[in-house]
Amino acid sequence: MKSEIELKKTSDSPFEIPEKILAIWGRSILASGWTSVPNELLRNQSKLGLSNTELVLVIHLISFLHNADARVFPSIKHLSERMSQDRRTIQRTLAKLVEQDILRVKVRSTGKQDKGLTNIYDLTPLMLKLINLQLPSLKIPIEQHTCPLCGKTAMTREEIEKQFGFRLDKGKERTQSWCRSCRGRK
Ligand SMILES: [Zn+2]
């Protein structure tokens, strides 16, 4: 008898909801789960160079994270329905996130036969960036440059080249102070 009650309890709430979250949202809103987004991610949106669309897509990806391995594999179709954007837009945004070193994508469908397989999105690069923003002393890449105007930060040489570019100063190569988009806006 006792075990039946316990069973019932677990099937009523498949997720163990932390009390604080429960107090804020209530059980019915939380019934299909919830997503924890670290404040560090939201606070550093501009430092990470994330547009609103990119950030929302990242949050959607985070909503599929259910264990500690940082990898998710939602379909493009699913993401495009959630965000009501066409698939090509979603794919373009994903490609941008890869370019910005926020995501890694592992393509799982290689031939015609694996059409059903979705790609795997790995959020480890984003996590490393957030750690680096918090603990500059642990900075993994050696090179880093921040735009004094918009706060955008590049963490690798490739990123600095892409987002800032270099100039020659008395025969020495120097990173452009302002990022390309701020220079373009001048
Ligand atoms: Zn800038």
Continuous helix count = 10
The number of distinct β-strands equals 7
Strand content: 5-15%
Main sheet, how many strands, which sense, barrel?
3 strands, antiparallel
Main-sheet strand order equals 1-3-2
List the domain count as a whole number: 2
Main structural class? mainly alpha
Give the H and E element order: HHHHHEHHEEHEEHEEH
Task: Characterise the protein shown here.
- The protein has 186 residues and is mainly alpha-helical.
- The chain has 2 domains: 34-138, Winged helix-like DNA-binding domain superfamily/Winged helix DNA-binding domain (Arc Repressor Mutant, subunit A); 141-186, no CATH class.
- The chain is built from 10 helices and 7 strands.
- Strands 1-3-2 form a 3-stranded antiparallel beta sheet, with no helix packed on it. The chain has a two-stranded antiparallel ribbon with strand order 4-5. The chain has a two-stranded antiparallel sheet with strand order 6-7.
- Helix 6 (76-83) packs across helix 7.
- The chain binds zinc ion (ZN).
- Residues 147, 149-150, 152, 178-179, 181-182 line the site of zinc ion.
